[in-house]
Amino acid sequence: MLLIIGAGEIGREYAKTLRHLGIGDVDILSRRADPAEALRREFSFHQAFGGDFTRLPEIIDRYDGIIVAAPIDTLSRYLTTLAELTRAPVLVEKPAALTAAELAAHIDRHPHQNVMVALNRLFYPSVLRLRQSLSDDPVLSADFSFTEWLHRVDLTRYTSPVLARWGIANSIHVLSTVFDIIGHPATLHAEVSGLERVAWHPSGTVFAGSGHSEAGVLFSYASNWVSAGRWSAAFRTEKGSYHLEPFEGLSFCPKGRIDREEIEPVWNGELKCGFEGMVRRWLSGEKVDERFGLPQMLRHLTTAERIIYPDES
User: Fold this and answer.
1) Where along the sequence do coiled-coil regions lie (predicted)?
2) Is the pLDDT of residue 52 over 90?
3) Over 90: is that where the pLDDT of 137 sits?
4) Which of 6, 138, 238, 241 gives 20 to 30 Å between its CA and that of 109?
5) Furthest-apart CA pair in the chain: how many Å?
6) Pick the CATH number of 122-269+291-308 from 3.30.160.20, 3.10.129.10, 3.30.360.10, 3.40.50.300
7) Hey, what's the torsion of the CAs at 8, 65, 295, 118, to 10 degrees?
8) Domain locations in the chain as residue ranges
9) Which CATH number fits domain 2-118: 3.30.300.130, 3.40.50.720, 3.40.50.300, 2.120.10.80?
């Protein structure tokens, strides 16, 4: 029996994925009972509960696995609560915590908790295909952008702490994917401007920097949250350049040309991109790959803080 914590948009994506995989022994827990019951009915699951943290002690023993798809600013508290109540494996939404210090403290207190972080972009067909291509055409340099469309951010949907850490809450999708591919930074020079320009994200809006990874890959980035742009990444090799733009598709520009060839079409499936492979991996019962564990997520958060919040890191 599985438990999904969270009955919002992401909780529904997990419900849809589990049903697609033929799994129906699922309960739903949410802060309010009505959304949980609505999700339970939609997918014909077992039971729905309201009460979030307060309900866990009385129901937790019945579950063989827990998916935490709750609001971002509650993820860390759920991890702590679950660590104290159960040894069942946990799949937790990214970023798992809003600060590296918070996640580091949790790992120190609960070093053996069985947690996989839901880095679904690492399961994108485009990213898997890129990894395959780079296995015999190694990346030499990379450049990327984590430009955010601030005009599209629903300020009523997120709490002030989440908005103030938007680079952790959202841009981490780009950063964790890029540095999973090229390796974590060994050196990093980061510049930030546009402080106080956006009231809900006073730490800055324009970001640029460079460095080299532990694998020896040179990288650079430029992101402007108050101008045009999009999430994108380019990985340059002796044969040419591979492009995730958008991340759901992969194209290639051979050396000596300017046109790109489509290698992996942009994802257009019914399930959220990467979810099927990610959930299958978690359900397999295999030991959590270190790429998806909490210590690796801590490294991603530390890097993100150095890039987006250098005055705080």
Assistant:
1) none
2) no
3) yes
4) 6
5) 64
6) 3.30.360.10
7) -40
8) 2-118, 122-269+291-308
9) 3.40.50.720
For the chain, count helices (H), then strands (E): 11, 14
Q: Which DSSP string corresponds to 191-226?
A: EEE-TTSSTT-TT-SEEEEEEEETTS-EEEEEEETT
Torsion of CA 214, 94, 289, 30, to 10 degrees: 170
On the 0-12 / 13-18 / 19+ scale of CB atoms within 10 A, 227 is exposed
Place of tokens 């866990």: 56
pLDDT of residue 287: 79
- Gyration radius of the chain over CA positions: 20
Q: CA-CA distance, 27 to 78, in Å (whole number)?
A: 16
The answer, yes or no, to whether residue 3 has pLDDT greater than 80, is yes
Does the pTM exceed 0.90?
yes
pLDDT of residue 286: 78
Range in 89-98, 139-148, 286-295 with the lowest mean pLDDT: 286-295
Strands 2-5 and 65-68: parallel
DSSP 8-state class, residue 184: -
Contact 133, 236 (CB under 8 A): no
What is the model's pLDDT at position 313?
63
Give the rounded percent of residues in the chain with a pLDDT score beyond 90.
96
B/e letters for 73-112, b = 16+ CB within 10 Å, e = fewer, are: bbbbbbbbbbbeebebbbbbbbbbbbbbebbbebbeeeee
Report whether pLDDT(281) > 90: yes
| Residue 43 DSSP SS3 | helix
